[in-house]
DNA sequence: ACTATTTTTTTCGAGCCTCGAATTAAAGGG
DNA sequence: CCCTTTAATTCGAGGCTCGAAAAAAATAGT
């Protein structure tokens, strides 16, 4: 709530509806009494809010899944999010891959589809066409009891403008400024979010492990490029204008190695897979890097680095230094925070860890000098998928099902 | 307003009170009709809120300063913040200098006092003693119609922990972890804020030029050390745990010049005044830098750099590169934003600008490639002062005078 | 079988809030 | 001296949350 915003009485109900939906989403199956205990709201208020939500079809009483039986007193009746109130779609767009999935409002997968596309040769229209085809298929084949499609969330490898739901630039395709949001929004008549995949990863991590990834943490994706999803003060941090924190394009060496973004000396130009292969293949660091990297070759190089101390090991060490130097600068700006390393780079963490920690060490500086926490997740795709799903569902929870105005409730719109 | 917070009906009033106080603080003299126009609240609500604020003594009708006369209809009656409802104190702590000032609730200076202290030799008790002495003097000598002291805001050169109102580390004194907040809070029975001086500068800039320094901007203080105050999404950005964004300690050159913080290669180790003098005095970049710098000598070096192309000019160019490299990394993380350069470094901007811009250029990258805006403010002290004042006053506006509960209103507490 | 007990959930009134409409207040114009 | 115009307040309607009381729905005991 900002200082220049005006508060109205129904804002109170809106906020408390959000609160109820959030606890239901987190716990799955909860009685009204449980909700009272979890939220701190009074029983009367919880009663009022839940009856409203039930009448709008957003949540439902779950008769079968009764919580506790064989106890004295009136039994609690379990409430749960109504899976059939809405469907959301997620689209992951990566190099040569489109992955679309449908989820119900409870977060259960309804259907999914993979599609191989030569993204590097694809024009924006080709990409959009592929995505629409997949979504059409999925929507047509879904069971009749599924709810109406109400949100699409895209996670893309590239720089995005969240406000305009546009992909500004991406390494996976030559076209720029692709307005996925506008197109999909018109075609399916729903709101669309277009976010950087790293932000989706961060979202997923925070959802699955809120203990560890709490208010402040960073998820760094080390794969085809280097990106970062950042959570600060419990909120995803999007740049001032565009999208993600472009960790990979922080400056490591002034006038250094050529980066795929066209500039010189970026962290990515030392630590990404293409940077490693450029180095181990004997090319100059100013040479244009490969657009695509064969994972098999990358693994081979990594294994060679593990077995003998040669050019390969040196390349990974350089990578560790680049990431470490970026982290040290990052930690100077925002204090040390837990880090998740995701993607192929996480699979070679053993090769970069020592150099990385060497450079970072001493960062903690004046504050509580805690140990730097780094966790690795070699496979990024499940995280991206889950992050997209949570983005969509939380959007519905907080933006669509939150307004108390029953006259414009989505279920009525869908009728 | 967070997702796990519960909303109550009186929160609405609290928020709208804040809104009214904020518009009054910004515009100074406003009729109820003006407030209606500015805020968007209904006349009835504005009437209710203003009568409450008047009865609590927080604002007052200003009979003399009538806004518009000679017009048909009932004349508007001007409202204004009541200067006598509270007094706030600011303390600026810098190298060899303590500056304490008293302001009334309207932001008018009541009294001020400067004190020269050899901070480098001072123990924490000495510093606290000096500050208390000054505040005692000021409070005793203030006019009888002044309001009760209700907040103290300190701006210090060093790393602070805002939550604990503690100065963790500072270049101006050997002692660490000085709990100014706790001591002053007990002694004067008020809340105390301890912030990094750069954050105060940012606060002041946003207040004086909200057009230019809007949602996102950075204020970089180039003087005895290098610090940064950052505004993101319209809110001051404090690190995850400690205090300011330590721009000066981002990594510029791995294993590079020795920084005063004990590490190597920080931006500060190339761009601060002591770094320039270390270089021009023929010392090695790994030598321990001077603790104190004579401004006269610094100016002399700058002038030499302007007149001939020698070691001095090279030193400033190095400084420009260091700052530029930091900015480029910063802009990678949070997108390009307007920058204010403050302090002695701003006076030599002509010597560093070219190299700085060279390194930064290309940062804008994919987004709207706007021109990097840099403005210079050679004297940091007025900004720090104003920032401290605004911090205190806004704290009163939003935290103390906002709760609608009239039973515990501060003016009653003071009686 | 029937009542007492226990626990959950709903209902109802009090006390907040904002807002629109009507009313009162306080000037200038003719 | 009345009319017009503008400012500010008052009042009722419709929200909201909450505490207390009532209703609902089970088990336990006789």
What is the gist of this entry?
Two copies of one chain form a homodimer. The first copy, chain A, has 415 residues and is an alpha/beta fold. Helix content of chain A is 41%, strand content 19%.
Mean pLDDT of chain A: 90
- Rg of chain A, Å, rounded: 23 Å
Q: Give the CATH architecture of the largest domain in chain A.
A: 2-Layer Sandwich
* Unreliable parts of chain A: 363-369, 404-415
Shape of chain A, please? globular
* Structural class based on helices, strands and sheet pairing of chain A: alpha/beta
* Helix percentage range of chain A: 40-55%
**Most residues in contact: chain pair:** A-B, 65 and 66 residues
Main sheet of chain A: which strands, in order across? 6-5-4-7-10
Q: CATH topology of the largest domain in chain A, anyone?
A: Nucleotidyltransferase, domain 5
> Any idea what the CATH superfamily of the largest domain in chain A is called?
ATPase, nucleotide binding domain
Q: How many helices of chain A does DSSP assign? A: 14
Order of helices and strands of chain A: HEHHEEEEEHEEEHEHEEEHHHHEHHEHH
Count the beta strands of chain A.
15
Write the layout of secondary structure elements.
The structure is a homodimer of 415-residue chains.
Chain A: H1 9-27, E1 30-31, H2 32-39, H3 43-55, E2 59-61, E3 78-81, E4 87-94, E5 97-104, E6 109-116, H4 124-141, E7 149-156, E8 159-161, E9 166-169, H5 180-188, E10 191-196, H6 197-208, E11 217-222, E12 226-232, E13 235-236, H7 268-271, H8 273-280, H9 295-307, H10 311-334, E14 339-342, H11 344-347, H12 349-360, E15 374-377, H13 381-400, H14 410-414
Parallel strand pairs in A: 4-7, 7-10, 11-14, 14-15
Antiparallel strand pairs in A: 1-3, 2-3, 4-5, 5-6, 8-9, 11-12, 12-13
Helix pairs in contact in A: 1-3, 2-3, 6-13, 8-10, 9-10, 10-12
Chain B binds a DNA duplex (30 and 30 nucleotides) through residues 6-13, 16, 31-33, 41-48, 50-51, 69-77, 404.
Family (chains A, B): Belongs to the ROK (NagC/XylR) family.
GO molecular function (chains A, B): kinase activity
Protein name (chains A, B): Putative NBD/HSP70 family sugar kinase
